[in-house]
Amino acid sequence: MQFKTLFTFATIGSVALLATPQPVDAHAKWKFGGTLTARADVDNIKTGACGNLDRSPNPMTFQVGQTITVQWTETINHTGMYYIFFSPDGEQGLPSSVADLADETNLLHKEVDPNNQVPAEYTANITLPTEPCNNCVLQMVQFMQNNNSNYYSCADIVLAAAPAPEPPPPVDPAPPADTPISVTQQIYDDFEAIDTDNNGQLDFQEIQVVVELAEENFAGLDTDSDGFLTKEELIAAGAQEPVDASPEDPADDPPANSGGESNGDSDNENSDSTDNSEDENTATDEESANDNAAVEENLSDNPLSTEEESGHLGFLLLMLMTLIGLRRKQ
User: Fold this and answer.
1) What is the DSSP letter of 115?
2) SS3 for 166-233, per residue?
3) How confident is the model over 209-242, as pLDDT tens digits?
4) pLDDT tens-digit profile of 165-184?
5) How do 60-63 and 149-160 pair as beta strands?
6) Which of 227, 71, 193 minimizes the C-alpha distance to 218?
7) Which of 66, 122, 137, 269 is most buried, by CB atoms within 10 Å?
8) Neighbours of 100 (CB within 10 A)
9) N- to C-terminal Cα distance for the chain?
10) DSSP codes, 151-183
11) DSSP conformation letters of 242-254
């Protein structure tokens, strides 16, 4: 009787234990000391979105668009899925129930729980959004498939704008390339040296020995398209004949015709003028002597009184002076 009673109590107790709901052993959280710092180092938060925990006073800072590696830890194995969501403004838009997992607007990553031996550690590379935010949150959700429930773990971050790129270092300017006119001038100056067959014209092969010239540039200089370059074609392209800058021998200079002829003509003109003036003065002196002789002869043939003689003499002197003056003016 006593044994039967004990068996009955044991049976009832076992049935009661089986009928009582047991807690689910499926726990996951952000790895403590990893890339992210969770709001709390606990793995049993089943209240979404972040277990009603306050925001961390020291959030991690990343750059917009940065790709980071995140780690989380599973302490008790359970079949299900892992999700990583992002919110730019606190817990807004983050899932807080199984039904919310269907909205993947803010989803950055998800993967199947591989049912590894626990404790197990997982990693994933995620690329952060490109808009800066100061109140951002990364949420890891473990979905347990057998009982249709979630575990949550949140980490606070800041997304900073990317720094302005540094200007590239200065690049040393390349030396100026030869302009077509300089190449053309070089060919012209070395024409005889390049013209190895002495035929007065240059083909492309001859030029390439001395000057590096592209075929299209050769064709541009070869205006008559005969496959050869002549000095005339080079001059037409801008080449100039060299100027001999050596000083000339003064003995080889021709006489300055303009200066010599001008001085000779001036000397001849001055000589002729002098001769003419002397001739005129001589003639004037001879005429004056003849006039004086005529006056004296007239006075000797016609004696006058002293008064008459004085008057006639004064008149004759006046006439003589007048004649002499007229002669000189001529």
Assistant:
1) -
2) CCCCCCCCCCCCCCHHHHHHHHHHCHHHHCCCCCCCECHHHHHHHCCCCHHHHHHHCCCCCCCECHHH
3) 777 777 778 888 888 888 888 888 888 887 777 6
4) 888 888 876 655 444 667 88
5) parallel
6) 227
7) 137
8) 16
9) 195
10) EEEEEEEEEEPPPPPPPPPP-PPPPPPPPHHHH
11) PP--SPPPGGGSP
Measured CA to CA, the distance from residue 236 to residue 202 in angstroms comes to 15
Asked if 107 and 83 touch (Cβ cutoff 8 Å), the reply is yes
pLDDT digits (tens, 9 = 90+) for 277-328: 555 555 555 555 555 555 455 545 555 455 555 666 777 777 777 777 666 6
Cis ω before 49 (30° cut-off from 0): yes
Question: Listing from the earlier edge strand, what are the strands of the sheet with 28-30?
Answer: 28-30, 67-74, 120-127
Q: Where do we find the tokens 């370059």?
A: 229
Tokens of 200: 């007065």
Do residues 80 and 140 lie in contact, with contact meaning Cβ atoms separated by under 8 Å? no
Structure-token pair, residue 270: 């001055």
Tell me which residue of 134, 119, 139 sits closest to 51, measured CA to CA: 139
Of residues 98, 106, 185, the one with CA closest to residue 142: 98
Amino acid code (one letter) for 323: L
- Quote the tokens at residue 248: 């000339």
Identity at 278, one-letter amino acid code:
E
Q: How many residues does the chain have?
A: 330
Model confidence pTM above 0.85: no
